[in-house]
Amino acid sequence: MTVEEMMNRLGLQVFAAGEMERDVTAGYASDLLSCVMAKAQAGYVWVTLQAHPNVIAVASLLDLAAVIVSEGVKPDLDTIARAQENEVTLLGSAQTTFTVVGRLSAAGVTGG
Amino acid sequence: MWRYLLADLHLHTVLSPCAEVEMIPPLIIRRARELGLEIIAVTDHNAAHNVAAVVEAAAGAGITVLPGMEAQSREEVHLVCLFDTVEQALAWQERIFAALPDRENDEDFFGAQFVVDATGDYLYTEKRLLSVATALSMEEVVAGVRALGGIVLPAHVDRPSFSLIANLGFVPPGLPIAGLELSRCAEPAEVAQRLPQTAGYGQVVSGDAHRLEEMTARTMFKVQAPTVAELALALAGQDGRRVEIT
Q1: What is the reported pTM?
Q2: Which residues of chain B lie closer than 8 angstroms to A57, CB-CB?
Q3: Cross-chain residue pair B169–A31, CB shorter than 8 Å
Q4: Is the CATH code 3.10.129.10 the one for domain B3-245?
Q5: pLDDT in tens, B148-161
Q6: Cβ neighbours of A37 in B, within 8 Å
Q7: Residue A2 CB partners (closer than 8 Å, separation 6+)
Q8: I need a surface site. Which of B63, B65, B77, B129 has the fewest CB within 10 A?
Q9: Contact status of A34 with chain B (Cβ, < 8 Å)
Q10: Running DSSP on this structure, what letter comes out for residue A110?
Q11: CA gap B153, B231 in Å, rounded
Q12: C-alpha distance from B94 to closest chain A C-alpha (Å)
């Protein structure tokens, strides 16, 4: 599934669009960026409640396919600007992390 | 004149729901004297009601009490906020209270939150839920404290919970913090190896004491005076000031 297909399937809001044709290889969910840095890998989608600018640095560093910010949390303008600068795909969902992960799982995205 | 001052810049009083009942002003000052501490900071969770009582209890003891707070940002990062005066700390408390969720403390679960006088006598109970994240971002906390003349040290960054490094991975470049706090038993060399992103920041080891025996005297400041501005210079290694961890 590509990032764009995932976006359409889950009805995600787009805060910043990177490479939308990219394949989502697996997923990871955590609000602790130190855990994400240790566990997520290139091509993953990351689901989190954190909307701090550091999220973009981690996504860029790990070359993630996309970040989904859950529960309708609005990223800071700085976070969005950094996502655009770094071509990180930053998406949003009004649903909880649990529900987003459940829907990703139903769509065939595994934990890697 | 240079002064070499042992400091513990993070301790809780009975206002913090998780602190033991022994954490009252006269016992805190007595323990500080036993340890040879000359600077302590009172840093309760999201509140500063007890700072004036500890300042008063320290009168004549040769110990500088910095009024402070351990604020919790919306990223669930604990930030030690330090001021020179009670008025500054209380002004900051107003800002924090406005950013706390409107919930009452559950004493059975979290513990009680006591406001006391300088002798440790009970005055009243704070009803707000203090052990919780505020709506302020980490950047807003740092900016707000600095605007009031204070300094910020992200707390226990070597630990897995409520830590800037654990929650946000690394210090955002340009964040105007005074330095980083390591937890009571931390070994700076081990932390530097495990968390290289902590390099380049002035560091202290603080007790984060919730009981008297947890107060610690591992951080020595070389400063001209026990003020937050001098501590900030020492943490930056500027103008001859410095800080050493033993």
Answers
A1: 0.92
A2: 169-170
A3: no
A4: no
A5: 999 999 999 999 99
A6: 169
A7: A20, A21, A22, A23, A24
A8: B129
A9: yes
A10: -
A11: 11
A12: 24
Distance CA B5, CA B222 (A): 7
Instruction: Check if the interface score ipTM surpasses 0.90.
Output: no
Quote the tokens at residue A1: 């599934």
* pLDDT, tens only, B52-93: 999 999 999 999 999 999 999 999 999 999 999 999 999 999
- Mean pLDDT, chain B, rounded, equals 97
Tell me what pLDDT residue A76 has.
87
What topology is assigned to A3-106 in CATH?
Answer: 3.40.1390
